[in-house]
Write a structure and sequence with these properties.
The complex is a heterodimer of chains A (450) and B (432).
Chain A: H1 2-38, E1 47-49, E2 55-58, H2 74-77, H3 88-91, E3 99-100, E4 104-105, E5 113-116, H4 120-129, E6 135-141, E7 147-153, H5 188-199, H6 201-206, E8 209-211, E9 214-216, E10 222-224, E11 232-234, H7 236-242, H8 245-253, H9 259-269, E12 272-273, E13 280-283, E14 286-289, E15 292-293, H10 301-308, H11 317-328, E16 333-335, E17 340-344, E18 350-353, E19 358-361, H12 365-382, E20 392-401, E21 406-415, E22 422-428, H13 438-448
Parallel strand pairs in A: 1-5, 12-15
Antiparallel strand pairs in A: 1-2, 3-4, 5-17, 6-7, 6-22, 8-11, 9-10, 13-14, 16-19, 17-18, 20-21, 21-22
Chain B: H1 4-28, H2 34-58, H3 64-82, H4 90-110, H5 113-118, H6 120-138, E1 145-146, E2 151-152, H7 154-168, E3 177-179, E4 182-184, H8 186-205, H9 210-226, H10 235-254, H11 258-264, H12 277-289, H13 312-320, H14 322-341, H15 347-371, H16 389-405, H17 419-431
Helix pairs in contact in B: 1-2, 1-3, 2-3, 3-4, 3-14, 3-16, 4-16, 6-7, 6-8, 7-8, 7-9, 7-15, 7-16, 8-9, 9-15, 12-13, 13-14, 14-15, 15-16
Classes of the chains: A alpha+beta (450), B mainly alpha (432).
């Protein structure tokens, strides 16, 4: 009998292993069924709302909306059609799935929804403020990370389909906020922060360099200033306010600014330097380009030009804005942006709520504090009238693109007001082709954010 | 099944279970003509009644396993008749009858192990013939023989033969021969040679799904053989055997051809319209069905190739719900678990039951877990549920092996209390 029991042990072993496998299978199916259904042809998607409950995406397609209702957020929110991959809906389609394993597909009354931090009213105002010009604008609360405005032009009304996709203008199907652009002189914020980190506040303020309209660097290449007759001798505050290229070229060449340390500080800021692998920020599933630049020889034109904001340097408007949060907060830590505030499941129960998150320290609080003062002084001295009613720390930039054929205007900054802690970045493409100004867009943006 | 109460209860249970399923088909199934449903219902009920009456004539030779098999086969006919709309699956019904007959044949052939031991050479020869048939008639990239009116999968027939080969060689374990420092049993070498040849042949046919089944049958037989006649497993031997299997698996994966590796590590969701098509559609169907299904005949997986065989678990899940699909699997497990309740009559029968259990559980695992992407998808049939005559016949035969292994019911005769004992107890009671 004992020997027969051995046969039963073998049978038991097979059965236990199989039953365990079945148990695991049921668990996996129950867990992943919503994912499986995402690949079904019978998808039932829910809604995306802004912070006031206004509809930004209607997965059921049963609502009625005014013409162009979805236009200003078209390439950020996107849809499920697959034409735009890097959008909120495309990257979070599982959260909009009106399905549960026990209920199956809920065709009527499903309550799966994403509640965003976005402000549709303000976004529409900013979109209109571009007046048909191309570019993008982004703004968020630098205390909480809630993205309020994120518009990119040209955009698309997703409810009208993609029949004319071949005729669409370049950049229509992406949110430019998330992609790299030539930062122009807004890059000087990074260079000043690096200099503050390397040599300290006192040493940097002691540096004075002269500008006569053009500086011939140590390898014999000219660095032109936008002001042909020059700025004369300046300190760092004046150089930032004047956005003086020769000053910054000389600062890079300075013996107190070793290239290795510049590279290290840039990397800490989040740049992919030289051959570093390009990476992305994950903003609620949306890939946001991380800055990149080439720094090889500090006496070479290309390296200096990169630190000034041209050359190979690329930064996304989102990241330019995030650096402003680290300055405005005075902590040297970026407030991580978030578009999704909370998510409800098919029954309407809140399944996840986002929380405030900060990056690691990318520069010291003392550097943040000094930079903040520099930008606030710049704002007070130069933007008091063009952006009235707000105490802003700000830096402008002009980026030459298309081999100098066009110039883009950039403005990055923050409002120094605890009741309205807004950081922003505006990119106005081909600024000479439009009467609209970046300052005007920023003013509209700040005014429309109640 | 000599107890009339058990017989009545078992028969009633089977008929009521099938009636409940048919009621579900009638109330929530999809059919355009009620005649389709009526034919299905009549066929299933007729099968239940006829088989039950036949079992009455078997008397002591009818066992619980027979009723479980009838329960499974009736359910199988209902499932297969509902895929994509209710319509009686005549061909499947016939194969189910063949499975019942095959079960009886298996029972009759395997109940007398002494007789079967004498036919060992014939079993080996039958395996050899099947291998020659495969070599000559199926071709190197196929596993089927097309007879025009039907197709046969000869590798299926090797499964019960291999179980019998393993079981009949048990006694030879006592005839050890000292060669160098090793105790060698010649039949072990022969068996190993047979299994290796069968597996190589399956590889040649690209019937990779059958290899784990053969390996499992051999492994269960091997484990029971290496310990015979001792009552305990040797830990050292087990560890050595386990290590050898693990090492073989690692080496096998390392040196596997590209197409095998592709199957092993494929991400089906990256190729939903290509190699991952069947599995992704199966999983979507399971998800769509939920716990309770969309209703008999209301599934859409029926439009996918092999919905009635390779991915049949998902097809059932979609229409009847995951809960019912799991219950169906439990019914199959119940069949192979019978020896745990009613122990086999001999070590031979125990080995045979272990082999059948290995074959069924591995086949079920390959089919269910493969179609649901837990393991590589190999396209093995689900015993008794999937469509396929060869599979049905051999599965029925293997069920017959389990029936053959069941001990006859022996009633305990209560000893009559003798007057003397009663008297002494009475006295004791007074003394207390």
């Amino acid at each position: 009998m004992k020997s027969i029991r051995r046969c039963l042990h073998i049978i038991t072993l097979f059965l236990i292993v199989f039953i365990a496998g079945m148990g695991y299978l049921v668990y996996v199916i129950n867990r992943d069924a919503p994912f499986y259904m995402m690949h079904s042809d019978h998808l039932q998607l829910g809604m995306v709302y802004d912070r006031t409950g206004d509809v930004l995406f209607d997965g059921m397609g049963k609502g009625t909306y005014e013409d162009g209702h979805f236009l200003d957020f078209g390439n950020l929110i996107g849809d499920e059609k697959g034409q735009m991959d890097n959008t909120l809906v495309a990257r979070n389609i599982d959260k909009l799935n009106n399905y549960s394993f026990s209920e199956g597909l809920v065709r009527e009354g499903g309550k799966a929804a994403i509640y965003t931090t976005l402000d549709h009213y303000a976004n529409r105002q900013v979109y209109n403020a571009f007046g048909g010009a191309k570019g993008c604008a982004v703004a968020y609360n630098y205390k909480t990370g809630e993205v309020l405005v994120c518009t990119s032009l040209p955009s698309i009304d997703v409810t009208k389909g993609y029949e004319n996709v071949a005729d669409m203008e370049s950049g229509t199907l992406i949110s430019k906020v998330m992609y790299g652009t030539v930062p122009g002189s807004t890059q000087k914020v990074s260079t000043v922060l690096s200099a503050l980190e390397i040599m300290g506040v006192d040493a940097l303020y002691a540096k004075r360099f002269s500008c006569s309209g053009q500086y011939i660097n140590k390898t014999g290449k000219p660095i032109d200033c936008h002001q042909g007759w020059g700025h004369g001798e300046q300190d760092i505050q004046q150089a930032v306010e004047n956005s003086c290229n020769p000053f910054f070229a000389q600062l890079i060449e300075d013996d107190d600014m070793p290239l290795e340390q510049i590279i290290e500080k840039y990397r800490r800021l989040g740049y992919a330097v030289n051959d570093d692998k390009p990476t992305y920020f994950d903003i609620d599933g949306i890939d946001c380009f991380r800055a990149s630049t080439t720094l090889t020889d500090k006496y070479e034109f290309s390296t200096q030009w990169g630190c000034i904001g041209q050359g190979d340097t690329l930064v996304s408007p989102m990241q330019l804005m995030m650096w402003q949060s680290a300055i405005a907060n005075g902590t040297g830590k970026m407030t991580m942006p978030r578009i999704i505030d909370r998510v409800s499941d098919v029954y309407g129960d809140i399944s996840s709520v986002s929380t405030v998150e900060f990056s690691e320290e990318i520069f010291s609080p003392s550097s943040a504090s000094t930079m903040k003062q520099i930008l606030l002084t710049n704002g007070a001295n130069h933007y008091q009238y063009s952006i009235p009613g707000f105490t802003v720390g700000i830096k402008s930039g002009t980026a030459q693109v298309k081999e100098g054929a066009e110039e883009n205007a950039l403005l990055v900054g923050f409002v120094d007001d605890q009741r309205k802690p807004i950081a922003f970045c505006v990119l106005l493409e081909n600024k000479y082709s439009t009467p609209v100004t970046a300052e005007g867009i920023v003013t509209t943006l700040l005014n429309s954010l109640g | 099944m000599s107890n009339p109460v058990s017989f009545v209860f078992s028969s009633a249970f089977v008929i009521i279970a099938h009636a409940a399923m048919l009621l579900n088909v009638y109330s929530s199934g999809q059919f355009t003509d009620v005649k389709d449903f009526a034919i299905l219902a009549a066929a299933v009920v007729a099968m239940d009644i006829v088989v039950t009456i036949l079992m009455l004539t078997f008397g002591q030779h009818a066992h619980t396993a027979d009723f479980i098999l009838l329960l499974i086969l009736g359910a199988s006919v209902i499932f297969q008749s509902c895929f994509g709309g209710v319509s009686f699956a005549k061909k499947h019904f016939i194969t189910c009858i063949a499975a019942l007959a095959s079960c009886r044949v298996g029972y009759l052939l395997c109940r007398d192990y002494k007789w079967l031991q004498t036919k060992k050479k014939f079993i080996w020869a039958a395996i050899g013939i099947m291998m020659i048939v495969i070599l000559t008639l199926t071709g190197s990239r196929s596993m089927w023989i097309d007879l025009g009116f039907m197709t046969i999968q000869p590798s299926e027939f090797i499964k019960p033969l291999l179980i019998l080969a393993c079981a009949t060689s048990i006694q030879e374990q006592q005839n050890k021969h000292k060669i160098l420092k090793f105790d060698i049993v010649y039949e072990n070498l022969i068996l190993f040679g047979i299994v290796a040849a069968v597996c190589l042949l399956q590889w040649w046919c690209r019937d990779l799904g059958s290899i784990p089944t053969f390996a499992a049958i051999y492994a269960s037989g091997f484990l029971l053989r290496i310990c015979y006649p001792k009552a305990k497993f040797s830990t050292k031997t087990l560890i050595f055997a386990g290590a050898a299997v693990a090492a073989a698996a690692v080496v096998g994966i390392m040196f596997a051809p590209a197409y095998v590796k592709e199957r092993l590590f494929a991400d089906i969701w990256n190729d939903t319209s290509g190699s991952g098509y069947q599995q992704t559609q199966a999983l979507i169907a399971v998800a769509d069905g939920g716990w309770f299904g969309k209703g008999p005949g209301k599934g859409e997986l029926c439009n996918i190739f092999a919905h009635e065989s390779d991915i049949v678990f998902a097809t059932i899940s979609e229409e009847w719900g995951l809960l019912f699909a799991v219950m169906t699997v439990l019914m199959l497990l119940l069949l192979v678990a019978i020896p745990l309740v009613n122990p086999p009559r001999s070590y031979f029968h125990g080995t045979m039951c272990a082999g059948v259990c290995a074959a069924f559980t591995v086949q079920m695992a390959l089919n269910i877990f493969g179609s649901c992407n837990l393991i590589p998808f190999t396209g093995v049939t689900l015993p008794f549920i999937a469509e396929g005559g060869s599979s049905m016949a051999t599965s029925g035969f293997m069920a017959g092996m389990i029936v053959a292994a069941q001990s006859p019911v022996i009633r305990k005769i209560k000893p009559k209390k003798s007057a003397k004992t009663a008297k002494s107890r009475k006295k004791g009671g007074k003394a207390a």
